[in-house]
């Protein structure tokens, strides 16, 4: 189940990253400026952010299996629609804006529903590694995107690249429908011993006495509020890699398309390695030293270290070294990733989808902010200032973990 959810995460990030790789050719063919392109990037994040809480609640109520399948269908179709916008179309900017917003809405279900799946299947002591493996899919999907998309663009064009990623999404859908199930009890491959073990360590996953938490209870929880703020900062830092990093290497730093495709994978390889590593470390430290060290300490240290690397990259001249330093920054950042999702599942329990959806809304607002603000800061104050500002936001998110309570919980109630 973790492998299948990893696959869905990888495909989701492949489909959302393709536009950043194709940006130099796409904006020229459709007649877009950098600022307009930034608005298009932000449209995805805004659609994604606006529907996160609803997506999480839908996963809690109707099941992650069905909600994820629906999301994959819709976003694959929208990826194909993007490739169908004609060159010279007078309303290309508005069409692209609408499609990317809708794509964000369709992909909004993925991680809240994945967290619902983790809460259904994984013991609390193993959720750090589980979430780390799922979010390694982010690095794999986004890391595959530069060489895959650039290869297709070099041999065909950017439209062919979008058709290819849409087809990959449909293949993933078939595998999900055939092999995934909502709970251990519903999966024919789960043995009786495995089902009994999971039921014994996650008693609230099937308990009728434990209701879903009201929205006011979720939003009013101090730890949830701090998670939202810190994940906003995390998203601001992470999305600079998903939106402007490739353009920065190719346009600002002068790497050719082929070299950009190679060096553009480094931050995402780092994410794929660091995400499960951070989850594994957090699980081990939580068992031996408690959640304050294992969850909060690892997350805080990762984000602070990421801020240092992002800031340091502005002082480096050689573009290849810049890519390496920024890769270290993305890796350090993703050491913190699993802590957010593990705590939101632990706090939310049967409302894990809703809690993680509200939290992830903060991240996506941060992603929309960096997509729009980066070119504005770069045009007025320079690209170094854009990255230094990102480092400052990331630092604030790391400091916020010092006040997050790893043992917080929500009292049961009824959905609001």
Structure description:
The chain has helices spanning 2-30, 34-50, 52-62, 64-82, 92-107, 110-121, 127-155, 158-179, 192-201, 215-220, 222-243, 245-252, 257-263, 266-289, 291-313, 319-334, 337-348, 352-381, 383-400. By secondary structure, the protein is mainly alpha-helical. Helix 3 (52-62) packs across helix 4 (64-82). The two termini are 30 Å apart.
Proportion of residues in helical segments: over 70%
| Number of beta-strand segments | 0
Succession of helices and strands: HHHHHHHHHHHHHHHHHHH
* Low-confidence region ranges: 205-210, 412-416
What gyration radius follows from the Cα positions, in whole Å? Answer: 20 Å
| Beta-strand percentage range | under 5%
Roughly what is the average pLDDT, rounded to an integer? 85
The major β-sheet equals: none
Please tell me what the overall shape is.
globular
Coarse structural class: mainly alpha
Essential attributes:
416 residues; disordered C terminus; 0% strand; mainly alpha; globular; 80% helix
Question: How does the SSE layout of this entry go?
Answer:
Blueprint (H helix, E strand, L loop, with lengths): L1 H29 L3 H17 L1 H11 L1 H19 L9 H16 L2 H12 L5 H29 L2 H22 L12 H10 L13 H6 L1 H22 L1 H8 L4 H7 L2 H24 L1 H23 L5 H16 L2 H12 L3 H30 L1 H18 L16
Helix pairs in contact: 1-2, 1-6, 1-7, 1-8, 1-12, 2-5, 2-18, 3-4, 3-6, 3-18, 4-5, 4-6, 4-8, 6-7, 6-17, 6-18, 7-8, 7-13, 7-14, 7-17, 11-18, 11-19, 14-15, 14-16, 15-16, 15-17, 15-19, 17-18, 18-19
């Amino acid at each position: 189940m973790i492998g299948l959810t990893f696959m869905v995460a990888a495909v989701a990030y492949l489909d959302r990253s393709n536009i950043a790789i194709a940006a130099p050719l796409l904006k020229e063919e459709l007649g877009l400026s950098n600022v307009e392109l930034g608005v298009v990037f932000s449209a995805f994040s805004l659609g994604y952010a606006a529907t996160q809480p609803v997506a999480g609640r839908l996963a809690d109520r109707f099941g992650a299996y069905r909600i994820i399948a629906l999301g994959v269908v819709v976003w694959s179709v929208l990826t194909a629609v993007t490739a169908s916008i004609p060159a010279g179309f007078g309303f290309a900017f508005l069409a692209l804006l609408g499609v990317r917003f809708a794509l964000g809405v369709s992909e909004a279900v993925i991680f809240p529903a994945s967290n619902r799946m983790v809460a259904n299947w994984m013991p609390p002591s193993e959720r750090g590694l589980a979430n780390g493996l799922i979010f390694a899919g982010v690095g794999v999907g986004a890391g595959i995107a530069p060489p895959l998309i650039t290869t297709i663009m070099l041999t065909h064009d950017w439209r062919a690249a979008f058709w290819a990623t849409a087809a990959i999404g449909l293949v993933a859908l078939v595998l999900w429908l055939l092999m995934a199930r909502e709970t251990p009890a519903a999966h024919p491959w789960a043995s009786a011993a495995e089902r009994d073990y999971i039921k014994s360590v996650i008693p609230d996953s099937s308990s009728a006495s434990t209701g879903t938490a009201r929205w006011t209870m979720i939003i009013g929880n101090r730890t949830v509020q701090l998670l939202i703020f810190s994940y906003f900062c995390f998203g601001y830092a992470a999305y600079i890699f998903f939106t402007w990093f490739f353009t920065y290497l190719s346009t600002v730093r002068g790497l050719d398309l082929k070299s950009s495709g190679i060096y553009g994978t480094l931050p995402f390889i780092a994410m794929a390695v660091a995400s499960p590593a951070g989850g594994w470390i957090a699980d081990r430290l939580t068992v031996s030293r408690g959640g304050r060290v294992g969850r909060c300490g690892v997350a805080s240290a990762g984000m602070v270290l990421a801020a240092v690397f992002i800031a340091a990259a502005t002082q480096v001249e050689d573009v290849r070294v810049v890519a390496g330093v920024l890769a270290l920054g993305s890796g350090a950042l993703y050491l913190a990733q699993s802590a957010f999702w593990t705590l939101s599942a632990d706090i939310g329990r049967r409302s894990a989808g809703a809690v993680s959806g509200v939290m992830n809304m903060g991240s996506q607002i941060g992603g929309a902010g960096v997509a729009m603000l980066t070119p504005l800061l770069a045009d007025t104050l320079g690209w170094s200032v854009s990255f230094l500002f990102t480092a400052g936001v990331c630092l604030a998110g790391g400091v916020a973990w010092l006040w997050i309570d790893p043992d917080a919980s929500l009292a049961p109630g009824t959905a609001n």
